[in-house]
């Protein structure tokens, strides 16, 4: 059970914490007692988000925002030093900032590919590298959580090539460093969300209502994920409830990834009751 002090004593930086899933995680962590730092590119958005996070937090939590582009290694190093100075220490990092858009891969410009891979992969490396070095120098344990996707691993995905490449790299980084940095008491895990509607993702990735319907029809749970569900999972992985979990990627997708099951299509042929009658008739016929 979570309580209002599940994450107390923690100071967690959430990149891209000014909106969407990053903001939902920030609010949840603050409600569980963690101090929160968020970073992003747009000051006004960050300022508004910081206020909302403070309101969601327990009385004692401190919330600060930092204007920073995760692609800028020097700025990220400077920001981590600033966070440690502002809060006294930093205990956790969520690499949530991402970039994505739909494109036929043959039409991608090198600049388009680079923009997304820079945000997703280089951005996650920059933050992880700066935070990891701080933890190692201070001989302090810590937690890193990387947001990947359900297409990071076995399938990749058509029409989002830069994101698929970047997120696969982030997953490789999660596992590589989980092993390498376990000796320092640093845990790294990943969450692979299925479809969680947010303005940032949906405006770029779901072109119209037809696409929305197609999206929904692939989810056996027959609904999208709720941000709160994702935030709960993130809080668990960042907390002292999960000290022995590292190098893991937890999928949270209502079963969407299981769509390739060979006979799954049968469910779409007829309503369940009709299917049951059909199966019974087949059985009685001895087939
Ligand atoms: C083709 C595009 C493009 C598009 C940009 N580019 N948008 N190419 N189709 N829709 C190209 C530009 O032409 C340019 O190429 C290069 O990309 C850089 O574009 P800029 O706009 O200058 O870059 P920048 O301002 O840095 O913006 C980065 C961005 C943008 C990734 C393009 O969309 C962004 O800031 N996104 C952040 C938020 C976001 O994407 N959230 C969704 C994450 S969802 P040239 O060749 O001219 O240099 C997610 C979840 C996945 O990841 C799972 C979902 C189920």
Automatic annotation (TrEMBL):
Keyword Cytoplasm: no
Domain of life: Bacteria
InterPro entries given in the database record: DECR2-like, NAD(P)-bd_dom_sf, SDR_fam
Pfam families found in the cross-reference section: adh_short_C2 (PF13561)
SUPFAM superfamilies cross-referenced by the UniProt entry: NAD(P)-binding Rossmann-fold domains (SSF51735)
Ranges in a coiled coil: none
Keywords: NADP, Oxidoreductase
Protein name as catalogued: SDR family oxidoreductase
Organism of derivation: Fodinibius salsisoli
């Amino acid at each position: 059970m979570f309580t209002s002090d599940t994450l107390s004593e923690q100071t967690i930086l959430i990149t891209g914490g000014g909106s969407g899933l990053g903001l939902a995680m920030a609010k949840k962590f603050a409600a569980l007692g963690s101090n929160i730092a968020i970073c992003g590119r747009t000051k006004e958005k960050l300022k508004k988000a910081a206020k909302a996070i403070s309101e969601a937090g327990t009385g004692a939590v401190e919330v600060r925002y930092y204007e920073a582009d995760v692609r800028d290694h020097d700025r990220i190093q400077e920001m981590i030093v600033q966070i440690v100075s502002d809060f006294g220490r930093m205990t956790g990092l969520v690499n949530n900032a991402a970039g994505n858009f739909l494109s036929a891969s043959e039409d991608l410009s090198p600049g388009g590919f680079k923009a997304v891979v820079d945000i997703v992969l280089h951005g996650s490396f920059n933050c992880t590298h700066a935070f990891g070095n701080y933890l190692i120098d201070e001989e302090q344990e810590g937690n890193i959580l990387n947001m990947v996707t359900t297409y990071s691993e076995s399938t990749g995905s058509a029409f989002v090539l830069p994101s698929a490449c970047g997120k696969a790299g982030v997953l490789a980084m999660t596992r590589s460093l989980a092993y390498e940095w376990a000796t320092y008491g640093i845990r790294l895990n990943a969450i692979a969300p299925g479809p969680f509607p947010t303005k940032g993702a949906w405006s770029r990735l779901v072109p119209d209502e037809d696409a929305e319907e197609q999206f929904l029809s692939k989810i056996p749970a027959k609904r999208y994920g709720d941000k709160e569900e994702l935030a709960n999972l993130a809080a668990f992985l960042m907390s002292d409830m999960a000290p022995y979990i590292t190098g893991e990627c937890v999928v949270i997708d209502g079963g969407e990834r299981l769509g390739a099951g060979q006979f799954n299509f049968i469910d779409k042929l007829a309503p369940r009751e009709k299917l049951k009658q059909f199966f019974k008739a087949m059985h009685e016929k001895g087939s």
